[in-house]
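2024-03-11 09:14:02 DEBUG pipeline.ingest accepted 1 chain
2024-03-11 09:14:02 DEBUG pipeline.ingest length=429
2024-03-11 09:14:03 DEBUG pipeline.predict start
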Amino acid sequence: ISASVLYAQLTTGKPAKITSRISPKHPAHYYELHIDTNNNKPDIVRDDEVKWKKDHGTKVELELQGSYQGGWQSVDQYLKQTAITNPHVTIVYTNPKAEQFVFARASDKMPPKPIEIKPHPYGLELGVLMRMLKGTSAKSLQSFLMSEFSRVGGGTAKEVCANSSLLPKMKPKNVTREMGEKLMEGIAKTKIIAPPSDCISAIGPELLEKGIRKEINAEFYCATTRSPQVYRGNPFIVEAGLAFGGELGGDETIRVYRYANRVPLLYQQSGCSVTKSVIGTSWKNYGLSQSRGALPVGPLALVVHIGSVWVPFTSESKEAVAHYPEIIKEIKLALQEIGRKLGIYVHKKHRIQMEGAKRNYIETFIPHVASALKELVGFPVKSEEKVKGLLKDILEKNRGTLEKITIDNPEYDEELAKMGKEEKKEEGS
């Protein structure tokens, strides 16, 4: 919002107009403000109490100068992608051509409010750890670990000190750089509970799938949410979903929708860790064609969302996520999880198509078989239609038996395990 207000101020010189109300018990306020760029503070030009029909809410009006264009990196596409990862929001958009688009909400459930937590010990860098040791008010190393980090209790703190060969009662300010390295090694050796996920506003697999369903017309959908992981002491969550078939083109490379904290990333796709993870995943196992070092080809749309208290972007423009090994690993695991579900669907669809083709071939030859039986057995001509019907009934019964065998076949249950083994084999090589 501050960047938008500043851009409007730079291009037109007009203030931002804001109407806000916190509850029906309080009056609505109307503001006009500029941003004081020298002191980085708001410069309120106007502040009035006004009548407003809304019980609560905020309305922001900006007038700015810009160029409108269509395509993949347009405002239209940005809002469409925003509607996918924000299924609780209704967006009404009118473009400069006076065309109105409504992205209706798919859920009335609001996302939970994130809760502030302390850093997690895993992935912490030495420089940050030394700064925390010098600035803490804790009297001992054990109390420092318990008070400054998330998921570290008394027993875990003692185990970290033991694995680091450091005394729990020593003063944190007396820890040298060499001791800090030992402490980092002790943290890595100690099994610490994963960070809580309530510090991140995750979408969830159900809502993510609903968001994809309402914006992408396809025939198969699935989504997953990974458990929280840590990089540089900051927890993060990777969520992934896909849409397959339907109106998606099958002769083009797949669509990749990248998000960071529910915000679409439209630029620098090639330099993003999400794209690298998609390319590094073997999609041939899941029924798609893929050239070496390129995105797969097929009727598929992928949605990858990274939620974190601190997303490591490659630059200040926040257009791509940096290539952290922990993040790339989690993205690949999420893609493999939804990929296995896609593979089962694609393989099953292929089997059904093959079975249908065989059935059509057999039905084509039923009249010829009936005619041959008439000559061999010698039944009257009037019974030929009855024989055709009996042959068709036998075919239907066999088809039903075949479907039952296919559904009950343990090979279907072993499909996931087989794909998982192939993925591990590829990762090992």
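2024-03-11 09:14:41 DEBUG pipeline.report The mean pLDDT is 85.
2024-03-11 09:14:41 DEBUG pipeline.predict end
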